[in-house]
Amino acid sequence: MNFRVVIDANVWVSAIINPHGLPAILKQLWLSDRFDVVVCVKLIEEITGVLTRPKIQTKYHVSSEDIETIRRLLESKSIMENPLEDFGFSLRDPDDNYLIGLALASKSNFIVTGDRDLIDSVAIKDELSRLNIQVIKIADFFSILDEK
After folding, report:
1. 91-102 b/e (C-beta count within 10 Å ≥ 16 → b)
2. What architecture does CATH give domain 4-147?
3. How does strand 110-112 pair with strand 79-80?
4. What backbone phi and psi angles, to 5 degrees, belong to 107?
5. Does residue 113 register a pLDDT over 80?
6. What is the pLDDT of residue 105?
7. For residue 90, is pLDDT > 80?
């Protein structure tokens, strides 16, 4: 059985703007069915919203086709779930609470992120760990996949 993984928008955006970095490798591993990705409408909207910013499109040569491709891919290949809205604790940035709610609702094993607030918060990591959810960086997730 595959791991269920919530991947933060910052990782998806990095995978699109840098096709040779760790986030792009993570995307390829997902496409190779090494794990399952869980998304929600808000996460897809956040990813496409960032990618449609003129500064991002100009600097990184992101086309409308690139954005549509990732949107369609996420909608068709991922597990779509509605995040829990109330789970008893909150992040410093409440705009990211939906990621926790999504992981909880979907019974995900991991949240993969580059967000320092999530990675560095011992209290949040401890709370989620008791619920069998790990908040980790991409490189740490690769190590776990290698062990699987």
Report:
1. beeeebbbbbbb
2. 3-Layer(aba) Sandwich (3.40)
3. unpaired
4. 55, 45
5. yes
6. 95
7. no
Which residues does residue 134 pair with via DSSP β-bridges, in sequence order?
A: 110
Phi, psi for 59 (deg, rounded to 5): -65, -40
- E-state strands within the chain: 4-7, 36-39, 79-80, 110-112, 134-136
Residues 139, 112, 29, 51, Cα dihedral to 10°: -110
> Has residue 72 got a pLDDT over 80?
yes
- pLDDT score recorded for residue 112: 97
Q: Rounded to whole angstroms, how far apart are CA atoms 35 and 141?
A: 11
Residue with tokens 């995307």: 27
Tens-digit pLDDT profile for residues 6-19: 999 999 999 999 99
